[in-house]
Backbone:
């Protein structure tokens, strides 16, 4: 399916926020951003760099700004997209079409584009050496195919697997998580590949 077909399908699909996202699109198309389709949502870019996207969820819809941390946010509407995990991304959420402030949204979109032109970006941190938890180390030691598969992942993806286990508080949860990731590692599938 072509990008234009994917975009059309996204905006035309029946959804409780269909009108709201269509309205945000109308505003976005007034900017100089180029409309694209990535990660199953419309993304608006400038010189190949992601600037903002329009998304819909079960209980809200909105605009997320890749480097929204640099926006002035005079209306105090921006939220951290994933508290603790996301350094730069910010989200402006709406529950209804009536909540959309045309001028405000357009202003935030244009400011985000100007910030992109200035090169204001949150740089990805270098992934530190991966510390493999003992549970996973034991499995890798038992199974050379698993060890080889794990070694083919980037340090970032290895770190995701390791943190997934170590972030669990209880031993039973750690074991469940280990059971979940072992087949993924064997198949060469990263923990969050389904979301990328």
Residues:
């Amino acid at each position: 399916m072509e990008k234009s077909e994917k975009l059309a399908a996204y905006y035309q699909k029946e959804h409780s926020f269909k009108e709201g996202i269509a309205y945000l699109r109308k505003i976005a198309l007034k900017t100089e951003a180029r409309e694209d389709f990535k990660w199953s949502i419309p993304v608006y870019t400038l010189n190949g760099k992601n600037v903002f996207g329009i998304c819909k969820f079960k209980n809200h819809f909105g605009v997320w700004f890749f480097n929204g941390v640099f926006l002035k946010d005079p209306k105090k509407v921006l939220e951290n997209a994933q508290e603790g995990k996301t350094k730069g991304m910010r989200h402006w959420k709406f529950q209804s079409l009536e909540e959309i402030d045309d001028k405000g949204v357009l202003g935030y979109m244009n400011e985000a584009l100007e910030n992109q032109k200035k090169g204001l970006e949150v740089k990805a941190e270098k992934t530190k050496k991966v510390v493999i938890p003992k549970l996973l180390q034991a499995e890798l030691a038992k199974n050379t195919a698993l060890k080889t598969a794990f070694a083919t992942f980037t340090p970032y993806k290895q770190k995701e697997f390791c943190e997934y286990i170590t972030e669990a508080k209880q031993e039973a949860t750690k074991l469940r998580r280990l059971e979940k990731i072992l087949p993924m590692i064997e198949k060469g599938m990263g923990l969050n590949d389904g979301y990328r």
About this structure: The helical segments are 3-12, 18-28, 102-117, 134-142, 144-151, 155-166, 171-187. The longest helix spans residues 171-187.
